[in-house]
Design brief:
Low-confidence stretches: 321-338
Shape: elongated
Structural class: mainly alpha
Helix content: 55-70%
Strand order of the largest sheet: 1-2-3
């Protein structure tokens, strides 16, 4: 488990670092260069700290000890890169002396960390880093220094990412910033995990030279969130490609379910509209787009089949205010916007509800005519048609005007059936 997590994290970090370096290393955006530098440092550290790599180095002493020291410094340098990312996200007018102070602090931490490890006399033995009994506290001090400085860097980055997210409109960029914020928060947990080694440092002078299972999992998840966030604008642009297919399937599945009340009412009275009578009511996820398209066709076929039962005045009587297609508000009549569409949807849902009552009674309501009105919405794309039918379905289920139209239709058909 530890090997798998470490190697997956290393692969994600190094692949992303190479990808960004090839594209933007010579560009003018310093934040992108720092992100690539962070990914490269962290990926190399995770690779050399993988248990399988450390095992291969055991017979190469003192090389295994040198590698251990280098990987610790690579992780610290990766934190410095994250700090620089956060500082580069600040407004251009911000005080640049703060960046200089942070760079000097970073250099002091790196030098101090290396010096403390050397003073601890750490050696790698059988997969563990060991320190002599009289130097154990140096090892503990190093881990506390690493955790404290790494957490500080990540907090600076998180603060700037949150600020940037609030200033960006909804879209792929905001999604990417949120994913990177989650990665930074999880990175804090990952960094602080090293403090769990401090008791072992002080009592036994031991420290794991490789990543343990928890660190490996935290590293892999952090790497996935970070690379996903940094590449959000790329994979979001492939909305028609295979990367976005699961999202499209899920959206189609949910829309298919949302149209269920209207479709079910039509299918019950008009079973002939089913294009595939044996099709399940709940689609398989990866067929949801096709099944949604079929459901839209069946609803429209049902609409056409009900036309002989449409009452002539259903649309006018169902409109809550004004005329069909116009909504009246405090500022006067609304244009052809959202409220107008809702009014038209209520009118169409009321017409369908009244026609279903007539079909169920086997007699058209008073005033019905064979041609019937056409749909209030003629959509020229599948997406627009689906959006319209969702409005109609919502009105069909919950609108008081539609419920009143049902009652009137039952009264009309009952009165007509009792007349001579």
């Amino acid at each position: 488990m530890a090997d798998l997590g470490s190697l997956v994290a290393a692969a994600l970090f190094l692949s992303f670092a190479l990808y960004r370096a090839l594209i933007i290393w010579r560009g003018s955006d310093p934040a992108q260069r720092y992100i690539a530098g962070f990914a490269g440092c962290m990926g190399a550290a995770m690779l050399f700290r993988a248990p399988v790599v450390m095992s291969a180095l055991r017979d190469l002493a003192p090389l295994d000890t040198v590698v251990m020291l280098i990987t610790h410094e690579l992780k610290s340098f990766a934190h410095v890169m994250l700090l620089l990312v956060g500082l580069s996200l600040r407004p251009a007018a911000a005080d640049r002396t703060a960046q200089g102070r942070q760079i000097r602090l970073a250099a002091a931490v790196l030098v101090t960390g290396a010096a403390v490890l050397l003073m601890a006399g750490v050696r790698a033995e059988s997969g563990l880093a060991t320190a002599p009994p009289d130097r154990r506290w140096f090892l503990a001090v190093y881990n506390v220094l690493f955790a404290a400085y790494g957490t500080w860097c990540l907090l600076v980055l998180t603060r700037e990412l949150v600020r940037q997210t609030r200033q960006v409109a909804a879209g792929p960029m905001r999604t990417g910033l949120r994913l990177m914020t989650f990665a930074a928060l999880l990175g804090i947990v990952w960094t602080l995990w090293v403090l769990t080694y401090v008791p072992m440092n002080l009592t036994q002078g031991l420290h794991t030279a490789s990543e343990d299972a928890v660190c490996s999992v935290l590293g892999a998840v952090t790497a996935a969130l970070a690379t996903g966030g940094a590449t959000a604008t790329w994979w979001a642009s492939a909305s028609g490609g295979p990367l976005a297919a699961p999202g499209r399937w899920l959206s189609a599945y949910r829309t298919h379910r949302a149209l269920e009340p209207l479709w079910s009412a039509l299918r019950t009275e008009l079973p002939q509209i089913a294009l595939d009578p044996a099709a399940p009511r709940r689609p398989v996820l990866w067929r949801a787009e096709f099944d949604l398209y079929r459901r839209v066709i069946e609803i429209r076929d049902g609409h056409l089949a009900l036309r002989p039962y449409f009452p002539a005045d259903a649309t006018g009587r169902a409109a809550p205010t004004g005329t069909v297609g116009t909504a009246v508000g405090p500022a006067g009549p609304a244009g052809p916007g959202e409220r107008s569409a809702e009014v038209r949807a209520v009118a169409e849902a009321a017409t369908i509800a009244a026609a279903l009552e007539g079909k169920r009674a086997g007699r058209a309501p008073a005033g019905a005519h064979a041609s019937g009105p056409v749909s209030q919405q003629i959509a020229n794309t599948v997406a627009a048609e689906v959006a319209w039918l969702l409005l109609v379905t919502a009105a069909f289920v919950s609108s008081p005007e539609v419920a009143a139209a049902r009652v009137r239709a039952r009264t009309d058909t009952a009165g007509h059936s009792g007349s001579p």
